[in-house]
Amino acid sequence: MANGDEVHIRSSAHLPDDWADERSWMVEAGVRSSLSVPMVEAGTFTGFVMVEVTLGDLAFDATHLSTVRSAAAILAEAFARHDVERELARRAREDALTGLANRWAFSEALDGALAALAEGASEGVGVALVDIDRFKLVNDAFGHAAGDRLLVEVAGRLVGAAPEGSLLARLGGDELLVLHPDVADVDASADRTRAVLSAFDAPFEVEGEPVALTASVGVAQTGPTSAGGVVDGAELLRRAEVAMYRAKDAGGHQLAVEAPEEGGEVARRLRREAELRDAVDHDAVDVYYQGEWDIRVTSWSGPRRWPAGTTPTRGCSRPGTSSRWPRSAGSSPSWGPRCCAGPAPRWVGGGPPACPTTSCCG
């Protein structure tokens, strides 16, 4: 039948001798005759439609055969459409590269977990944002195709290391999300996340070369006992993101747990970044110089520039506080051409002191 043949059995007595099992089945089931028509869609056998007669001695004629053939064709098309719709639904919820859940599927699962929390069906909900450290170096060294293959391997390891009930998703690029739908507190969320991160313990292999990967991770949790009480999904993800950037700013390769006071600090940081950019754009930056003593050669290595910006809300910033451009503010401006041009500095008092009294380097 898989070859497209139709099978019409008039009675068990007409079966070949080597069909003993089929004859026995027909007798036990009381089937007097049967007609089977294969379902074929786009040249592929997908099943068959069987009509059985258990009462009387019905002889299948051309009308019966035409009806069963039509039914087989309609069912074959319906099953094919169902398979296509199911595949489209899967693709809509799945990351095309890694096979992990995508952001939409993660948001749906997070909403479901928060609904269960609201109904008292869980103790709390935890999320973790995982950012792979220095993944750009892999792309630069081996190419994006190799980087994609590495992401697929990372995803496979993470799924294998994830505790039962936790959901992994790809946010985009080298950022991943982890959902813990039923955790008592943030420490439990952190412990479950560390279990996932054990996938990074062993090095990966890229183009035959061993590559050690680490990750910066932020963990946040909401529940009746969590700081700030129960929050929605957007706020929970924001807290995890803030914690992740704190881990990355501290050098990476670590897990940071949300801190309630971080929200105000982030707001102050964003305001400072905006003021710094405005100060540069309006030439509101003065330059101070400080001598540097090189302990390797025990001599002055020259002056170091410390730009100080004037902002409307904070006034003139202390020298040095504006010289380190925040990473999250994007590419830093060129302090030299924009605000540090001018005559060479002159030492107050005619020259540098005889012994180092300022910060030293080396």
Biggest sheet: strand arrangement: 5-6-4-9-10
Low-pLDDT segments? 322-329, 335-341, 354-362
Overall morphology = elongated
Strand content: 15-25%
CATH class type of the largest domain = Alpha Beta
Give the name of the CATH superfamily of the largest domain. Reverse transcriptase/Diguanylate cyclase domain
CATH topology of the largest domain: Alpha-Beta Plaits
Q: Which value, in Å, is the CA radius of gyration?
A: 35 Å
Alpha-beta classification: alpha+beta
Total of domains? 3
Which CATH architecture of the largest domain would you pick?
Answer: 2-Layer Sandwich
- Overall number of strands: 14
Distance between the termini: 83 Å
Q: What pattern of helices and strands is seen along the backbone?
A: EHEEHHEHHEEHEEEHEHEEEHE
Helix content: 25-40%
How many H/I helical runs? 9
Average pLDDT value?
Answer: 80
Q: How would a textbook summarize the main sheet?
A: 5 strands, mixed
Model description:
This protein is α+β, with helices and mostly antiparallel strands and 362 residues long. It folds into 3 domains: 7-93, GAF domain (Beta-Lactamase), CATH 3.30.450; 103-260, Reverse transcriptase/Diguanylate cyclase domain (Alpha-Beta Plaits, 2-Layer Sandwich); 273-361, no CATH class. The chain has helices at residues 20-29, 62-93, 103-118, 135-142, 144-161, 186-197, 233-249, 262-281, 335-339; strands at residues 7-9, 33-41, 44-53, 125-132, 167-172, 175-180, 204-206, 209-211, 215-222, 254-257, 285-294, 299-311, 315-316, 360-361. The strands form 4 sheets. Strands 5-6-4-9-10 form a 5-stranded mixed beta sheet, with helices on both faces. It has a 4-stranded mixed beta sheet with strand order 13-12-11-14. β12 and β13 (315-316) form a beta hairpin. α4 crosses α5. Residues 322-329, 335-341 and 354-362 have low confidence and may be disordered.
